[in-house]
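User: Fold this one for me? It's Retrograde regulation protein 2.
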Amino acid sequence: MAPEPISTADSRSSSHEKAHDGHIEELEKGGLSSPDERVVVTELTETEQKATIRKIDLRLLPILGLMYSISLVDRTNLGLAMVAGMETDLGLDVGDRYTVIVMVFFVAYIVFEIPSNLILPKAGAANWLAFLGGSFGAILIGMGFTKSWGAMAVCRALLGIMEGGFLPGCTYLISCWYTRFEVGKRLAGFWILSVLASGFSNIFAYVLTLLKGKQGLNGWSWIFIVEGAITCAVCLLGWFIILDFPSKSGNFLTPVQKKFALDRLDADRGDAVEDEITLRKILHHLKDWKLYIWAFNLMSSTLPGYAYAYFLPIILKQGMGFSTSKSQLMSAPPYILAAFITFASGWLSDRYRIRGPVIAVHQILTAVGMLITAFAKNTGARYFGAFLGIGFLQYCVPAVLTFQANNITSHSKRAVASATCIIGGGVGGIIASVAFMASESPDYHTGIWTTMGISIASCVLIAIMDVYFYFRNKKARAGVVLNEGMTNWYYTP
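Assistant: Here's what I get for Retrograde regulation protein 2.
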């Protein structure tokens, strides 16, 4: 059984009930079964309501998507730099040095996830996310001037500290602006920018390597320096654009629009206004076993993602015999397919209000793609495996984040849950750096089978959680229990 909410849940329920006083009506249909049965009473026409939501979309999603896509490129361009001369210049072909500089990033990344999400509401979303982005941009520039593998390891650890709070912060902020069955396609749209950036970053990296010799720097140095400078510029722009939480959105919305935005969130889950984050609440939320299943689900999603990002250029070059330039350019096309699949799956998942089974299908197809990449006998089949694996993989991350966001309430729990979930993603990066051993290049059999086993375990855990949700919702409809301390609120399978 899920732990019962502490007394602060009463304030959420009170806020939820207060919102219904004159603002939200519940239709009598023999018991509520979905948020659609709670109608927000507003002065806005239906057209004006849609225009308000589009206004939020255009202000919030593009800048966050752009900033995160650049941070993801910064994080995953190590494999591209390796084949562009960094391996030789820094002596990364000695022992496990490459594995170390991959792994130290994720150790720091994991440690600073939760602290960062706790700082964000106090510092303000725009201030904190822009600070993090500008910081890891500056660190990336510094990476371009490193002369030893030890200095690169230190830079990678600092990069992990600053990037650790960025994705949970973005997820936290987006989930606070949208209802449960709107957030899926919004997170998918936010993620699509990062998917496309990941693909085209390979081409961009190849172009930057052509600067080899300029100012006495090798091509890999220019990858870090130019991408770091772009990161700093974009994140400075983000400081002027990013919205804060709905209750603190300033003059961006008119009073009527702001009231509509808050009322619809209260109708959906009763947490439009932030509750105070305290140590007691944090410790209470961390007792919820569901948070750790979502973290495992995300770990099993990011593991193959980082594996492809860090090792696909190496597989294409050493395993399939392509040149350095072709291995970089051929890393891009699978991400274009992934963008289409991500959008389609996000739309369908919101449309039919189902999360877990869709994630499981994507994870299995990703694992199959990796098996084909590893064990197929000809180059064409192995490259097809990369298309299959990357194509179905990319939706898994926003899908798991949506699965988690749909099944929690209160801002304090949202802050803790998004951070713990993405800690699982960082663990996936550590496993990728250890399981995909340099000594097994370019086949990486240990990494492939590790990914396969973790993907199967993730699917089993999704099935267990969905069965739990089914019986818990059944009890909630019968009035036996309250889900997340709220009446007429049901988990999303």
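One thing worth pointing out: Residues 338 and 389 are 9 Å apart (CA to CA).
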